[in-house]
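Appendix B. Extra example for self-study. Work through it before the problem class; the solution is given directly after the inputs so you can check yourself.
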Amino acid sequence: MTLQPRHLGLAVALHAVLFFFILVGVQCSQPVETPPVVQGVLISPNDLKALKPPTPPAPTPPKPEEQDQGPQQIVNNTDVVADQAKQKQEQAAAEQKKLEEQKAEEQRQKEAQAKAEEERKQAEELKRQQEAQKAAEQAAAQKKQQEEEAKRKAAAAEAQRKKELEDQLKKEAEQQQQQAQAAAIARQKKAEEAQREADRRKRAAELQQQLGVESAQLTAQVQNEWITQLSAAIQQAWAWPPGTDPKTKAWLKIRLSATGQVLSADISTSSGVPLFDQTLKQAAYKASPLPLPRDPSAFDPNLTICFSPNQQSCTQ
Amino acid sequence: MNLKTTLIVLLGLLSAPAAFADIVFSVSSDKSRAQPIAIVPFVQSDASGVDIAQIIDDDLKRSGMFITLPRANMLEKPTDIAQVNTHNWQVQNMNYVVLGKVVPGAAPGSISVSFTLIDVLHDTPLGVLNGSDIIGRDKNHWRSAAHQAADMIFEKLTGIRGVFNTQIAYVDTTGGPSNRKFQLYIADSDGENRRTIAVSREPLMSPAWSPDGKKLAFVGYDRGYSAIYIQTWETGELKKFVGERGINGAPAWSPDGRRLAVTLSFEHNPDIYVIDVASGSRTRLTTDPGIDTEAAWSPDGNTIVFTSDRGGQPQLYTMSSGGGPQARLTFQGTRNEDPQFSPDGKWLALVNSDGSGYHIGLMDWQTKAVKIISDGFMDEHPRFAPNSQVVIYTTQGSGGEVLRTATVDGRVHQTLSQPGTNVREPAWSPWPPSN
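Solution. Structure tokens for the complete assembly:
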């Protein structure tokens, strides 16, 4: 809204004219009363409208003051200069007229300019408004769009969130499943490990047992031979009483010394027939010393022997 | 019997050398041996000729289950257990030693016997048998006191009740065809203490003890006619029980002693009858045209086994003691006859012939399998001892028929010394009633 130099020039000129009128206005106050020129000149509704104090350049306060003062002084001064020379008056009138015309023209131009300016301003304003509206619309649209976008985004976000949640749940489920699987695998591994360990131990035990068995088998073999010898020796010394029921049987416990001497021979399970039982003990002492195993490791000082006339009786 | 077969059964092997678990095995053998025992002469104040210890010694030896140490070989003759040095007996392989004494009993003429049985292998008295239980009330019963002692020792060691203190009835035949004499005797189981029950010029046969041992039924002839007599000891009564026309034979007491099964032929054919002893009422059990004789009662009294030649050769048949269907029982050999049940019902003794001789057989009553237990070639008339362990029968000796015993396993055979010259038809008494 800065004053253009043209406008300034016009304002200076106008002030000069008005000053002139103040000086001379006493003589020609009458003519001044008749303002047909002024009245009848090109005032259109638009001009009236334009004449109204310009609202847009409100930010230029000094200008309206000058304009208001000017006309009042002019009116006052006309009364003083009423009777001046007619020619001069006429000439002045012509000049005045010409000046006025010029001024009007200037005014008109000025107004036109102002009008144009106003129009321009209005157009600009309109345009601005339109633009503002458009911008608003645009903004609204944009906002709407944005909202929609936001909504869409929100929905998308929601969907995303849901999806993420689902994903998360799924992921968690998967994770859990994985964990469970992992745990299961771990357990299985652990079990397998335990099994392997057990197997290993079992194998070790079996191996050891096998070794033991082999050793035991060897011992057993030696013992078997020994038992055969013992049996033969004891059987040789044994005879049951005549008349004994073949089913009669009794168990004898023999304790041997390291040299095979019978240290003790006692009936552990009696036949119920002392005479029969006695033959067992008698046989043990009679057979003493008993043979020894060829491998001392197979020696056992404790023998438990079932005696019966009938071999089947002892196994029953 | 001499065949040695050793059969060893390994029951199990528990081989843990460090722990010394017992080695367990079994020994079996068919080798039997009479068991050594020493009967030390008893302390006897009365030297009246009855050597109690010797009677015991002979009883145990005769059973076949013991071998006794002759007195001459004894290293010591202790009279009290405190004097016993077990080593002296162990070195002679003795298992048991019997010490005892005989003192006069409370009643005049009676004796009281007490003794101790010692396990010299363990230096342990097995039993002190007090004389209060063994009393010979008079000289005739002094030997009986010794037999009682022998029975106690026998039962203590074998678990089987002895039969030494029992009696045997038998018939002795003397003389030739012109002066033949039949005598029915009863004697102690060792043949001693023989008493004459009946003497006849005609045959005396088939003595049979009543189950309570108080009566003896036998067959005699009176002027050519046979009859069944019953002798009752307590009263001395001799009674003709049945004397029908024809055969009156083979009396057999029912286990309850109230009836006699006999063979009668008065109805034209020898058949089995059962006669009530008290009433004399008869029941004819067989009607077969063959000879049915030699009835034997099962111990439960429900069954009678008898000999019949209805099949051509004598065989054993069985029927209810009430009569009824009869079934053949024996199929082994050519002949089977003269049955008797063992008192325990396990065996049926019989005479079996395979065509080359007569042998004593035992039928296992459960399986009906027959085994031969006698070793002669003319063995007859088997009768069980009351303990069912021994069978007495007649066999052909060098000078005539003799009495011989066999254990049911056929392992021990003993010939009874001096029962007579030609003895037949033995019958073993039941155990005497305990008094």
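Self-check: The longest strand of chain A covers residues 262-269. If your reasoning did not lead you there, revisit section 3.
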